[in-house]
Write a structure and sequence with these properties.
CATH topology: Rossmann fold
Number of domains: 1
Structural class: alpha/beta
Number of helices: 6
CATH superfamily: Vaccinia Virus protein VP39
Oligomer: single chain
Radius of gyration: 17 Å
Bound molecules: S-adenosylmethionine
Helix content: 25-40%
Distance between the termini: 49 Å
Largest sheet: 8 strands, mixed
Number of strands: 11
CATH class: Alpha Beta
CATH architecture: 3-Layer(aba) Sandwich
Strand order of the largest sheet: 6-7-5-4-8-9-11-10
């Protein structure tokens, strides 16, 4: 299921690179800084927030919507090593990129980046003692969402470009499959997305976006239900 779109590399403001799809007029990351965006929204407001608020929990299930270039996966693996976590990372991608498309990003010398991309799809693979990777070459709309997810990186293309992925039924399904106290982060701070997240049960926070990037981003928390 390889798409035939033209995909072009592009340098972002922080010096890191992203990819651009002219046909969709869409980038894989923020043009204000790909690396800064991944570190701030997903590793920082997502995973780091989760581990800081769950000091006793060193085993974390992460689910990413949109594997893309593998940048979020790589940075998460580096963070897992640094913080001595055990991360189980499930990620889904409908259109895997080729090594030829990924090379201009500038990570191809990184052993971690090579490992992440060389590992097969569909099977759970231990990359090192801190990181298990499960890449799924599937459509997130029809796949079976994993259970007991602690942290969700909701990194789909923008709602204007792929509205079908920003729907209540998918968000509800993800919410239902998350552990209590789970956290979801996304770069998209649109009011309609925020309201949809609230509608499915999340408590939503609007937080400061990455330095030099978007003004606001969203973090959605699955809070414990209080029974009367
Ligand atoms: C914003 S990019 C993700 C960037 C990525 N997280 C990274 O670190 O490079 C969105 C990704 O979602 C993928 N995608 C689009 N439709 C999808 C679908 N129905 N199911 C799974 N992935 C999909 C796209 O091909 C693209 O790689």
């Amino acid at each position: 299921m390889q798409h035939n779109r033209i995909i072009l590399p592009e340098k972002t403001t922080d010096g890191s690179h992203t990819l651009y799809i002219p046909e969709l007029d869409e980038h894989y990351h923020s043009v204000k800084g790909a690396l800064t965006e991944s570190l701030h929204i997903y590793c920082g407001l997502g995973l780091n927030h989760f581990v800081e608020t769950h000091c006793d929990k060193m085993y974390v299930n992460v689910f990413e919507v949109g594997f893309g270039t593998g940048l979020n996966a790589l940075l998460t693996m580096e963070m897992a090593i640094e913080k001595q976590l055990q991360v189980h990372y499930t990620t889904v991608e409908l259109y895997p990129l080729t090594w030829e498309q990924l090379s201009p990003l500038g990570y191809s010398e990184s052993v971690g980046f090579q490992q992440i991309h060389q590992l097969p799809w569909e099977t759970e693979e231990r990359v090192n003692e801190h990181f298990i990777l499960h890449k799924l070459h599937k459509d997130v709309l029809t796949m079976e969402i994993p259970h007991e997810i602690d942290v969700v990186y909701f990194d789909a293309f923008a709602p204007e470009k792929q509205p079908e992925l920003w729907c209540e039924s998918l968000l509800q399904c993800i919410y239902d499959h998350m552990a209590e106290d789970g956290v979801l982060t996304t770069y998209c701070a649109k009011g309609a997305v925020r309201r949809m997240l609230q509608q499915v049960g999340f408590k939503v926070e609007r937080l400061q976006g990455p330095p030099g990037g978007k003004r606001e981003v969203l973090r959605a928390l699955k809070v414990k239900q209080v029974l009367n």
